[in-house]
Amino acid sequence: MPNIATGDFEVRDNYGRVLKYVSPSARLPRCGRWARGARAFFAIILTESAALATVGGVGGIVGGHLVAWLAGRLLGSSGLVTDPLRVDVFEPAVLAGIIALGTLAGLLPAVLAYRTEVAENLAPLS
User: Fold this and answer.
1) Average pLDDT value for residue range 13-41
2) Is 114 within 8 Å of 42 (Cβ atoms)?
3) Bridge partners of 10?
4) Is 104 left (phi over 0), alpha (psi -120 to 50) or beta?
5) How far apart are CA 61 and CA 54, in angstroms?
6) Entry pTM
7) Could you tell me the pLDDT band of residue 12, with boundaries at 50, 70 and 90?
8) Structure confidence at residue 21 (pLDDT)
9) What whole-number distance in Å separates Cα of residue 113 and Cα of residue 90?
10) DSSP letter string over 23-83?
11) Which among 31, 47, 106, 107 counts the fewest CB atoms within 10 Å?
12) Res. 111 pLDDT band, cuts 50 70 90
């Protein structure tokens, strides 16, 4: 009998024994991973990798300026001149490169997550 709530149905013999159990995912052909949320996982993973690269890049640049400030404070008496507040013209380009490389590094996990069959991995083993 079909189960209307879940869409599952069973094929039984004359004695009431279950011969075959068919779930909706088995009846339907693969209707495209994009329709089942894989596109959202793909976007989430890429966005996360871009965000992590952005935080790391900004943190690295700020950390570099803090080290320059500390070096100026510690070694100022020896004649070392630093301007830790000066932003170099290449820093935005370096930050953009870090974000691009971080997003590119997240592309492989995103593609692997896209190719993963969620229904097969969630199915019980027994």
Assistant:
1) 58
2) yes
3) 21
4) alpha
5) 11
6) 0.62
7) low
8) 55
9) 35
10) -HHHHS----GGGGTHHHHHHHHHHHHHHHHHHHHHHHHHHHHHHHHHHHHHHGGGT----
11) 31
12) confident
User: Tokens standing for 63?
Assistant: 């950390």
Residue 63 Rama label (left phi>0; alpha psi -120 to 50; beta) = alpha
- Asked if residues 103 and 46 have their Cβ atoms less than 8 Å apart, the reply is yes
The structure tokens listed for 31 are 């209707």
Radius of gyration (Cα) for the chain, nearest Å? 28
- The CA-CA-CA angle for residues 46, 51, 53, to 5°, reads 95
Q: Are 71 and 82 in contact, with CB atoms under 8 Å apart?
A: yes
pLDDT at 83 over 60: yes
CA–CA distance, 22 with 78 (Å, rounded to integer): 80
Question: Cβ distance 84 to 69 under 8 Å?
Answer: yes
What distance in Å separates the CA atoms of residue 84 and residue 70, rounded to the nearest whole number? 9
Using alpha carbons, select from 57, 52, 48 the residue that is nearest to residue 98. 57
